[in-house]
TrEMBL record, chains A, B:
Any Pfam family: Peripla_BP_3
Origin superkingdom: Bacteria
Domain HTH lacI-type per the UniProt entry, residue ranges: 10-64
Organism: Streptomyces ureilyticus
Alphabetic keyword roster: DNA-binding, Transcription, Transcription regulation
Protein name: LacI family transcriptional regulator
Keyword Transferase: no
Keyword DNA-binding on entry: yes
Cited Gene3D superfamilies: 3.40.50.2300, lambda repressor-like DNA-binding domains
Parts of the chain that traverse the membrane: none
Length: 347, 347
DNA sequence: CACCCAGTGGGAAACGTTACCCATGGGCGC
DNA sequence: GCGCCCATGGGTAACGTTTCCCACTGGGTG
């Protein structure tokens, strides 16, 4: 069977004709612009309803705004990002802005491609979540369109930032484990080689925070960092390496830099025939639904993704309204959520 | 510090001037259209590279195409959807099309809003994943823009569909459990009240398939369905209800309609002090990363999300190329992935 | 030698919307 | 009573691209 013929779209001209006014008048009503009397408003709105008119965003973008916010997500699988997204959509849902997501496809290349695509599609503003791009590129992006960077430290006059204090989060974990009597607390980090990103990326800050906190607790000698990656497989490899350490070199607690990493670590520990938390404690980061899941019950750090998203959306709206206001950095504090994968150190 | 002044975007006019040709010529080169000599092509391409020109999708959309595909995802949290998305982006990545996601925000209302937003933003085609909308609405959407519906049964001349055979999937689970000696196999389903959707939604088909398979195995007497919802909490409630059954009414195996449901069920079973799979077997559906996670190791049904996505993208490209070709229905077969949450029935 | 056609290039009008500015008319201050 | 200003409405030119069609060239054909 052949599909039915597509109908022509209702345009502003149709509305104007139907309401017996000019297109300019309709446009004014649409944008709540100055210069439309209440009667005019009513007449136009009725015509809009009767015809089922909806403005064409692309055409709007040519002169004015598209009323669209683009969000670049580096990895849809990471269960932390939906929280951020919720905060964004929630803040935007009673504005006239619509959120569209660009799937970052992992990797700097794919991320750049998606970001360009969002710009080319006339987004009024961009929220980049944990971007890998260089600062120079971020500045370029921000010069093309109002931009908020989420989850990265380091500031620029060109864009606003919202981030959680990862150093503080790491300190919370180390403090918690130390209070439970652990001394040999190891950390699985995401390997970062690019020197310019080194200080800005959350993973580097967490590793840094871990080292600082260990020293603060007089555990400098016990600092033990394994570099893999923030993936389940990275956690698995990292934990395997830690478990190979002999006797008093083997850690009694593992601080994984992300919940997915903790997942991999738990898998490796289970495979090794060890028990959590009796033989070894494990803590993650992000407080994903996975961590909250009863049978897992992973101690984790809550980043308040919803709050991050809310702030990002708010800042973006502000910046769209005034591109010249000075840039803002919002830093939020994480909280520790102790669960059943951490307990008193053995012996 | 004030952000730097934004630069004007490079347009096709700039390219034309720089290459000393007409804008028409540049446009032809951009679209590989007929009527541009090799020399012209080379000259224009060089100008494009030198100026770093990228076409403005919104402006293109006004006359031609935007080279953008919109994907409506009802729930980013469901770990099954990223697989589908991967299949889509993978198929599209060496075309000139870009994928943008519309977050469905759960619920028919939000879904409708996002779908409209995608249409208004000039998408060349739409992929709707497991939409809740009525058939009438789907037909309307499809009449506005080429559309592929994923994960819903029932066909229409207006759109193509790609779906997994849920009846078959349910049969795989029941067959597996029956072969392990289970007789009292219960099912936790997602309650569906809307009669028009009843036959089309995957959840209904799974419940149906469960009943058919139970009868086929001579277990008609043991059919036991609890209606909650496809959420973790729904699984928790459903399992609690099942565990309250006394003696020989209590099931020895639970077929949860989705992995998230199985998560909730596992939580309830653990809380009740029972052991999986010794006391009770549990199977899920979707084969998410959660199911594959070692310490969980949930028996599940794999829907080949990647294949679904691939097919959806392929069909959509075909339909964009020819809006008049008859509609196509692709049905894929699921496979069972037995893991450690299912074992021989007790006694 | 007139004619035609294929190949190539460009001019101009769309596409749907908004920004800018001007025209009109009535009320108000002086 | 005269001029001024504000409130209201509309005309028109953008915005960046594609599509439609016409013009020109040169070579082959009748």
């Amino acid at each position: 069977m052949e599909p039915p013929a597509p109908r022509r779209r209702v345009t502003i001209v149709d509305v104007a004709r139907h309401a017996q006014v000019s297109t300019t008048a309709v446009s004014k009503v649409l944008r709540n612009a100055y210069g439309a009397s209440p009667e005019m408003q009513a007449k136009v709105r009725r015509a809009i309803d009767e015809l089922g008119y909806r403005p064409h965003a692309g055409a709007r973008g040519l002169r004015g705004k598209t009323y669209t916010i683009g969000v670049m997500l580096p990895d849809i699988r990471n269960p932390f990002f939906p929280d951020v997204l919720d905060g964004i959509t929630h803040t935007l849902q009673d504005t006239e802005y619509q959120v569209l997501l660009g799937p970052g496809d992992c990797g700097e290349k794919g991320e750049a491609r998606v970001t360009e695509a969002l710009i080319d599609r006339g987004m009024d503003g961009l929220i980049l979540v944990a971007p890998l791009a260089s600062r120079k590129r971020l500045d370029e992006v921000a010069s093309a369109v109002p931009t908020v960077i989420v989850g990265r430290h380091g500031s620029s006059p060109a864009y606003d930032t919202v981030a959680d204090d990862d150093v503080e989060g790491a300190a919370l974990v180390v403090g918690h484990l130390a209070a439970l009597g652990h001394r040999r607390i190891a950390h699985i980090e995401h390997l970062e080689t690019d020197p310019t990103r080194l200080a800005e990326m959350p993973n580097a800050r967490r590793a840094d925070g871990y080292r600082q906190a260990m020293r603060a607790h007089g555990l400098e000698e016990c600092i033990d960092v394994v570099s893999t990656s923030y993936t389940q497989e990275g956690g698995y490899r990292g934990a395997k390496e830690l478990l190979e350490r002999q006797g008093t070199h083997r850690p009694t607690a593992v601080f994984a830099g992300a919940d997915v990493v903790a997942m991999g670590a738990l898998e490796a520990i289970t495979e090794a025939g060890l028990s959590v938390p009796d033989d070894i404690s494990v803590a993650g980061y992000d407080n994903t639904t996975f961590a909250a899941f009863g049978p897992v019950s992973l101690t984790s750090v809550d980043q308040a993704g919803h709050e991050i998203g809310r702030n990002a959306a708010r800042l973006l709206l502000e910046r769209i309204a005034d591109r010249h206001r000075p840039s803002v950095q919002v830093r939020l504090s994480p909280t520790l959520v102790p669960r059943r994968t951490t307990a008193r150190a053995p012996e």
